[in-house]
Each structure stands twice: as C-alpha cells, then as structure tokens.
Amino acid sequence: MRRKESKRQAPIIYASPTPDVSRFLKGKTNGDSLARLRAMVFREQQTRWGAFGFSPEWSFTLAPIEAEGENAAKYLATFFSKDEKPQRKVFLKQYHHPQIDSAMVENEFCGIQITHQALQPTDRFRAPQPYSCRLDEKILFMEYCPSVSLKKVLFRPLRFSRLLLLGRERERLLEYMIEAGRLLSHFQRVPLNHHPAGERETAEGIVLRYEKQLLRHLGICRKGGFPEDLIRRIQSAVFHRLESQSFPPIVLQHSDFAPWNLMVGDRHLYLTDFQNFTPGFASFDLAFFYCALDLLYRYRTVDGALLSRMQSVLVDAYLNGHEEAGFLELKQPLPLFEAFRLMHMTYFAQSIFCIPAGSYYQSLYAVPFRRFLIEWFHQHLEDEGSAAMSVRCRKES
After folding, report:
1. Which of 135, 257, 263, 326 has its CB 3.0 to 4.6 Å from that of 147, i.e. a possible disulfide?
2. Which GO terms label this protein's molecular function in UniProt (predicted)?
3. From CA 91, how far away is CA 370, in angstroms rounded?
4. Is 277 in a helix, a strand, or coil?
C-alpha cells in the first residue's frame, strides 16, 4: 500500500548567544549553572517562542525537578504575566553524559517535532510540543506535560497482583496495554521520509546496525560473567534470523519504546525521549516493550497469568491498529519479533551489569537478576530450537 505523502517538518529552531536578563527574572539563582540556564530561557522566550504564544513581557522562575533518567538534568520554567498570574510551563532537558553529543540531541528534537505533529489529530495520543534546542549546550526546550510514567502506573498494582488485585485494576492494566499498542501503530504510520536519513537507509544497513548492537551488548554480558556457551547460542540465533528471512517493511523506530517513556496524563498518553529515533524494522519497538514486561516475571509476587495476558493484549492492539489503517501488509504477523526479544534481553542484561548491585536488585520477593536472565535465555533458546525442529519435521513429512 502506498503511503500518503505529507509535508516535511519545519526546520529545527536554534538559539543564539544570550543577553542580560536580570530585569525579567523572578527569584534568586542557585549558582552560575542555574543563572546561565535562566539566561538561555530568557533568550529563547524573547527570540523564538513568540510563535508558540509566549509574551516577551512575561517573567519566569526556573527550578530543577526530579525525574527518571540519569543522563540528563531536568528543569521547569514557569512563566507569569505582569499581574503575576501563571501562564505557561516549559520543560528543560540538559544532557551531561559525554557519550551524548549534539548530533544525538538534534536527532531527539527532530523526533519530537515529527511525532508531535503526527499524533496531533488523535484524541488520546501526544508527544510534547517542542519549542527549541541549544545544540551547543545539549539542551531541549519543550512543553511541560503533567503526567506520571506508565512504568509507575503499571508496577504499583502489578507488584503484588498475585496476592491482591481488584477486578477494575486488572481491566485498567489491560486498557493501558491496548493504548500502548495503538500508540505504537500510530507512530509507525508516520512517513519514513520525515526522518532526515529515512530515504537513504537500507534494510542491509539496518541489519548491520542491529548486529553491531548485539555484539556490543554480548561483550558486556561476557565481562559480567554470562556463560560463554550461552553467549554464542544467543549470537547464532539472532544472526540466523536476521540474515535468513526476507526483510520486513522499514518504519520509523523509537528505539526505547517502553513503559518508562510513555507518560500518563489526565487526558493524553504521551510518547517521550526520542534520543535514538531512527529508521528500523516494525517489530523492533513492539518487542522492546514486550521484553520490558518480561522483566516483571522476575517478581514472585506478580501474577504471571495476568502479565502474559497483558503482553497478548499489547500485541493484538498493535496488529489491529495497523490492520484498521491498512498499513504494513506483512507476510508474517511479526517478522523478526523473536530475534528482537533475544536482542533486547541482552540490552537489559548489559544495562543491569553496569549498575552496582543493591537492595533493589536483590529483593527478597524477586529472583536475582543474573539467575532470572540466564534462565530466561535458556528457556527461550530451547523454545526456539523446538519450534525449528517442528518446522523441519513438518517439511520432511
């Protein structure tokens, strides 16, 4: 099916050096760093944000806020009219991690722009309104969306769901899975040429990128003490699937589509954090969310049957969303889905090995992560082998 062409996005809004801003600022600064940030906010307000309804006469406060994620500092700017009435709020995200460069910040801003426009026609789904970015300072300025991460919304009732969970709470968990699946299907309908590299990306190049990612993650798992035989089996299984199947459709890939990047607001479900926004294969993001739920099987107090049901509902909602839109005509319902599950679990494994062990990861009501992951890989690889043997037997008969 041919995709509908739509207009390309507006260019990224960049900022220039900052002037003296003291007469417009409310309150006191907390050191030179916060003062510099306040100056940048003022400059953006005066030169860039008029198109979004910001008055150059508004004053503002700026304060750090607590938010998930360790790679960036987050701040909230609150703007006030001359009569001291609150007007607008802006979310600031400044990266400090040395491995996150200005190109990655620019890519994230591009992803927010594209997704914000694409989701606007929907009733429920949104991405924050992007305002501008400072690549030299690795800062993003965007709409502040009061919300809580879907990770928290899911984990609170799931944590002890084997012991106690009301029927209405179970229904709501399944409703969130439907929304997550449909949100992903909407996101993947965005024309590929909206990404700067979209039309230049090839399926062979995408496969090579996936293989490099897997090898990098397996290298960390090896240093973390994963059995060498298991590492070889994982690599062989993923490479075989990536290289032996026909290539599925290329779509826009979020790369971190998971409960911690979906934010639940009063009216909308927001998709955030587009740092690794790129072209990719359709089932990559779905498998990532699915594996994020897989990690919850580690908790002995989680109702495994309910969790399995949530995963099934997620997949069905995703496929139904594409089917209703007449998008992605797939020869297989989820090509490469199982390969991506293996690949994503190596990502989670290497991420966990990079974090010092603590009480959170050695909880009494949860299986130790290392044991859980090794058992998960063994079981999944055995299931893969059994399925392959079954296919061969059917062909021979």
Report:
1. 263
2. transferase activity
3. 37
4. coil
* Residue ranges for the chain with pLDDT beneath 70: 1-31, 68-70, 325, 327-333, 354-363, 385-397
Q: Note the pLDDT of residue 13.
A: 43
Structural domain includes residue 349 = yes
Cα 106 from chain centre = 16
CATH number at residue 268: 3.90.1200.10
Say how many C-beta atoms besides its own lie within 10 A of residue 296's C-beta. Answer: 20
- CA distance linking residue 165 with residue 173, whole number of Å: 11
User: Sign (positive/negative) of CA torsion 276, 280, 285, 291?
Assistant: negative
CA distance 380 to 233: 11
Do residues 61 and 155 touch, judged by C-beta distance below 8 A? no
CA–CA distance, 29 with 36 (Å, rounded to integer)? 9
Across the chain, which distance is largest between two alpha carbons, in Å?
84
Q: Residue 37 is part of a domain; what is its CATH number? A: 3.30.200.20
pLDDT at 385: 59
Q: Are 132 and 291 in contact (CB under 8 A)?
A: no
* First-last CA distance in the chain: 37
Q: Both 119 and 169 in a single domain?
A: no
Distance CA 23, CA 149 (A): 37
Question: Residue 105's pLDDT is what?
Answer: 96
Q: What is the dihedral of CA 136, 139, 142, 145, to 10 degrees?
A: 170
Last residue of a domain, one of 88, 119, 143: 143
